[in-house]
Design a protein that fits this description.
Length: about 120
């Protein structure tokens, strides 16, 4: 039965885009503290670009394209995975700092109302 369920298959465009990305090991590293410090620089200079981290990548984004100012200079991986799961975003906000603790899926299954309420 499981084999009959359709799964995601990337388009050729997506595959080419993925192949064009730099290898993560070749990118410069940035600590969480350095990322957070970029917020002060962005505010002080009214920067046209801000830094946001997601899933291990730090991205330079045009300020005008960032809808949520609270995402500036932080890792939003945990926040986005909580949002995808329908969990509360602010109550458990790690402010983009480790440790990135998320509830285990098995603990959510034992609390079905938590999923429905988004808590």
């Amino acid at each position: 039965k499981l084999a009959a369920i359709p799964t995601y298959s990337p388009s050729q465009h997506t595959i080419r885009t993925r192949e064009s990305l730099p290898v993560m090991a070749q990118l410069p590293q940035m600590t969480v503290a350095e990322l957070a410090a970029s917020k002060d620089k962005a505010s002080a200079s009214d920067s046209e670009h801000v830094l946001v981290a997601l899933l291990g990548y730090v991205m330079r984004i045009p300020s005008a394209k960032l809808d949520f100012r609270s995402h500036i200079a932080r890792d939003i991986s945990g926040r986005m995975t909580r949002q995808r799961r329908g969990l509360a975003l602010d109550r458990d906000d790690d402010l983009g700092r480790p440790p990135f603790i998320l509830p285990r899926p098995s603990s959510l299954l034992s609390q079905p109302n938590r999923l429905a309420a988004g808590d």
